Fold:
Amino acid sequence: MPKKSVREMTKPERMRHSLSRRTFRFVLLGSVLLGIVCLLIGLSLYAVAVARQDISTAFNLSRNASAVLYRAADTEPLSREVMNRYRSLSESERADPSSESYKAHFSDLTKREDYKMILSVLNDYRKSSDVYDIYLAMYDSDSDAMVYIVDPDPGDPYEPGAWESVEHEGVKKFLNWDGTGMLYDIGKPEKYGWMCTSGVPVRSRSGEVTGFILADITLNNVVSGIWRFVLQYTVGLLLVITLFGVLLLRYMKKTVVKPINDITEASRRYTADKKAGVQNTEHFTNLDIHTGDEIENLALTVKDMEYDLQDYEQNLTKITAEKQRVSTELALANKIQADMLPNIFPAFPDRDEFDIFASMIPAKEVGGDFYDFFFTDRDHLAMVIADVSGKGIPAAMFMVMAKGIIGTQCMSGNTPAQILTDVNRLICAKNREKMFVTVWLGIIDLRSGELVAANAGHEYPIIKHPDSDFEVLKDQHGFVIGGFERMKYRDYTIQMQPGSKLFVYTDGVAEATNADEELFGLDRTVAALNKAKDKSPQIILETVNANVREFVGDAEQFDDLTMMCVEYYGKPDTDNDHRPQNNS
Structure:
């Protein structure tokens, strides 16, 4: 696509990017590709037909020569003698078949009468046909070699015992032929170029294969015929492409290019009038396009668009104002929600038995996660973290209700399990929308460090005792709040020692997802905690948040990210005072 707009482009530039030229290039390219495909198909059929004809000629010639030799001469004694001598030699003796020492093992065989008879018959067949050579040979599967027995080639004949390396698959093809179809193999020896070897086996009186009558045919005529075919086809293709392109281009200009240019000019005038402040226009109504296809539909569509845009412009101001109002209200709701949660730290500067820090980052303007901590009496601190099902405003409203009920029930003096049981009963009674909330509730006795907690389907807490690492505490889970009215929950106890730290969180931490759809996971959460295990709760949460952000990268945040960490110091008169001297 051009980087300039139509108004910025010169006339030659507009011509270069015009639909006419693109159409011509498309027609030209399509015709060339179609021609190439047809050429390849034609070449394949031609090459197969010519090659099959040559193979059939060579095969029939070999079969006829085999039949004549069967009546005129017995090839079995000579074949067996050559192969016995060949196989009796060591690999080093067979290494150079052109050496005089190697030829000496077979030189006397050319004086035999059966050799002369076979040579005469094969020579007559070679002279009376178009084959490159016709000869008697045998394959040796142990050495993957073709051993010549009689070769009448006048130019460069092979003496008995001469051999050539053959691919193992070719040896198997000839030795294992079942008599059906034509027996042949196509290869490209360095000495001869592309060559087809076809033939038939010569069998002894007992049916054993003692040799092969083979005929070699060069494929040069196939190659030369292909080149002639390509030349003739290319010339004809160029003429057809030129004629077809010109006719199609004229047709496309009349039925496609001109109507589109008319629509483009109407669009230009429409834009100019809109910039000038003209309200009601009829540029597209005046178009005279009757192509009977999608272009005419386009002209009718832009005509309707011209009228629809006039209505849209009148409503746009109202919509923009309404959107701004909603955005302002959501921002205010976010601030109200943040103010509902404890967000001033240190939270209790006059208490030195513990340090606590919490944070919540909603996935949308408002979220369904919440945390809270407050004193139920002077020596007992209640801590709550929860995750409401769903996101956005419904979850935030449910969160306000759940937070209020939990806070009220915590003042009853009951254990966390009984508090959650009562909260669940109250929420189920008013939960027509079937929403639910997972809750972890703990109450710590600041005098003894005993923490009594209950879990309603929430994430496992993670705890660190003095001189150890953070580790997951797999506590007993009850069902979520709001799911089953008669649900009862169980308390469990954690003995906090001076220096112990407890980390609770929502599933937005472990389920934070990066661009590769990989979860942050519980193992990475524990590893992040242990990076700052000796730091204050605030530094610990900042470290976890930084690790999550680094892992997620530019991926969108899909869930609220809520965390809370408390460190227990014990009473001020404790011998081992674990209280930090600063907040680092």
About this structure: The mean pLDDT is 83.
